[in-house]
Amino acid sequence: MKLNLGANIRNNRRRLELTQEQLADRLGVSFQSISRWETGTTYPDMELLPEMAKLFSVTVDELLGYSEPEEKIPYREIEDALGDALKENNIEESVRLIRLIRLEYLDDVYCHAGCISLSRANLSDACKHPEIIAEVRRLTEDYLRLGKGGHARSSLIEQLVNMIDDGHLEEVLGLYSTEHADLSRDRLLLGRYRYRGEKEKLAELEWIRQYEHMNESFEFRRAVKGDNGNEYVCQVAENRLELLHAMNRTIPGKAHPLTGDGSIDIWAAARLRIGYYYIIHLSAAGRTEEALIALEDFTELMEKLVMLPNGTEISCRSPMFQDFVLKKKNSSDKTAGNVILVHFETPSEQLCRVIYVSAYRAWIGNPRIIPGNEFTLSWLTPLREEPRYLDACRRLEECLRTGVQPDDINCIIR
After folding, report:
1. What order of strands is seen across the sheet that includes strand 352-356?
2. What pLDDT digit, counting tens, does each position of 170-222 carry?
3. How far, in Å, CA of 234 to CA of 394, rounded?
4. CA dist 287 → 137, 278, 396 (Å)
5. What 3-state class would DSSP assign to 106?
6. Which among 196, 199, 213, 252 could disulfide-bond with 260, CB atoms 3.0 to 4.6 Å apart, if both were Cys?
7. Any residues with CB less than 8 A from the CB of 342 and at least 6 apart, and which?
8. What are phi and psi of 353, to 5 degrees?
9. Mean pLDDT of the chain
10. Cα–Cα distance between 276 and 154 in angstroms, integer?
11. How far apart are CA 104 and CA 15, in angstroms?
């Protein structure tokens, strides 16, 4: 019979969760000796075998590998037993079985196929137990060290995110979320909220994802790049604005090409972004009256946003977003030369939308001060002697002084 001493020492050491250094200390040898024993390079002295057997709670014959090995239980039977133990809230047995999977089954073909799963136990009390969560985390970390991809890797990460306590959630997300869609932060959080039955968090995150997706569809920078003519950019802007009006169930009046009816909704930042490009390209196309009307609507919207009391919630008439709200919060960013900002956040602060009042004032009223933005100066030339343009610049300047709370806040712009 082949001698399996090295493998047995390694497996028993791992079963007891001892490092090579810790085992070496107990036996009075160097950790290099333990390493050589486990790889089969050398063998321990015979007098150490009884001491090791006692430490591992096995016989010397079992340590040497002389006894007939028990037939390995198929992985799927282990998983079924684990599911039963979790449902019965048997913590000790659950920990033992998860540890068994970690120590002896990580190379099993069924594990690689993604069969490591605690989901059949749902969110039993056992799945909330710190010992279970700790063992699942060790299992995940050991499997990921193997460098294997596939469904099992994703399943283990999703499972750990589902089970981890709130206090360690950000740490785990920081370690394992990626830009890849399957393991993105939002997707992992969606799975966690569904798994844990946290309906309010789930609903808000789903609204945020839809909101961000819609905002991406309003992205305007591509339209103004390259040699696209002014009329083309104006047409793109009008199409975007028409979609926004439809989203808010607004029939636009002539005086409000940007806002539709002069009201504020959750798309205010998008309306200002599109409106800025619309104004300068209308002006460059010689459509002066339309540019001035759009500028007046732009200015009125900015004034309302700045004057809106902090804590005010804005929403949208669209049924898709009827329960989605953003809260107003003003700020000045002292690190950026006292730039005036308007912040809108979701109640949970998972999303923040920022409007740079100072930047829009500079872009429209004094583009020379912005490096690389000098082109705007010539495009706005047809408006510069117009009293309505000068009045809009004055009102935008006033926005920098009115209704702003000069408090510093930290905010992640998603």
Report:
1. 313-314, 326-333, 339-345, 352-356
2. 888 888 888 776 777 777 887 887 777 777 777 667 767 777 767 676 666 65
3. 25
4. 63, 11, 22
5. coil
6. 252
7. 305, 306, 328, 329, 330, 331, 354, 355, 357
8. -115, 130
9. 77
10. 43
11. 10
